[in-house]
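Hi everyone,

Forwarding the result from last night's run.
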Amino acid sequence: MEGKHYTKKNRKYWSVIPILITNTRIFTMAGKAYESGCILIEDSAIVEVSESISASKNKDDLILDAKGCWALPGLIDAHCHIGISEEKTGTAGDDCNETAQPITPHLKAIDAINPMDAAFHNAIRAGITSVMAGPGSSNVVGGQFVFIKTWGRRVDEMVVLEPAAMKVAFGENPKNNYGKSNMMPSTRMSIGAMLREELHAARKYAEKKKAALESGDSFDEDYQMESWLPVLSKQIPLKAHVHRADDILTAIRIARLFDLKLTLDHCTEGHFIAEAIRDSGFPVILGPNLASRNKIEVQYMDFKTAGILHKAGIKLAIMSDHPVSLIQYLPLCAGLAAKEGLGVEEGLRAITINAAEICGVAHRVGSIEPGKDADIAIFDGNPMETFTRCLYTIINGKIVYNFDRESRN
């Protein structure tokens, strides 16, 4: 049940020719930028990044002159429900929450993602090449997230990391879903208690399994408990739905109690307790701020939160929470956060390398460096500005979106 990183061997269906991108402004997000540089792509990977790269004599190679454009690593949405809460299909396409019982760690997002969801094309048109997608927040434990690319028809071949995180939720959503049916949880106390009880049982299970394997004794595996093993071994984090300051602190308290990795997702009131979050060492996935304040938990929602958290020394990514905010507006969310104090550089990092690092996939995506996946977005300006267009989206070395071609159709 360990998180599995899928490699190029799992992507045999990619058949691409070498691409040389030239004359473009490159933001590598790896500490270096080029005012006018080149990127060489071969076999679905980035081979070279330099001020000048000689073109191959092979006539089949593609030379892409991107003069005056911005080239960035493909953008990353670190928290969304794309393909699970489908657009246009109503309840028939909504598989986001299993609301029959509050503890469901064994549910897998990969079983519910429909690559035919129209939102995937919207993501690609916005230069978004990969996402962390998974179940919603109606349950105390909702199930396992998956990190995938945004292009493909077979979800198994879109996967980068699975499982990638375990979703847990605090606050209003699990309370409202079960409390109205006279079930637990109906209070924040019961949410915390139920999560601690489940983690305690999972730890006991892990200890018993380890002892049996070491002694050679037989052991009957429990499928639900097996889901917790990569969490307990810190291979993947708890992905905590937390808006209110007290819920953020409860998530931190429980993660510390069981010595777990944790991401603080939404973190709407994080600016009230920035020092406590910084001291915890846990990263933040902030958003969706481009949405209405439709419940008490989000009454203090503000784009200024990102800048406050960054200045406090907290690593953060910005999410769309699609379909709460539409995924194609992810770069605009980063831009509004940049405007309100985060700054341009950190705004770009929040939807590229920071997102990749927080999601545990920075060895594959998030920056333009040799050896990494050839996921690149080319824009006619700063992607965080309203009038900027994505001209090309490249995923695994294949041009999957061409603005000129689509605009002619």
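The two ends are 45 Å apart (CA to CA).

Cheers,
N.
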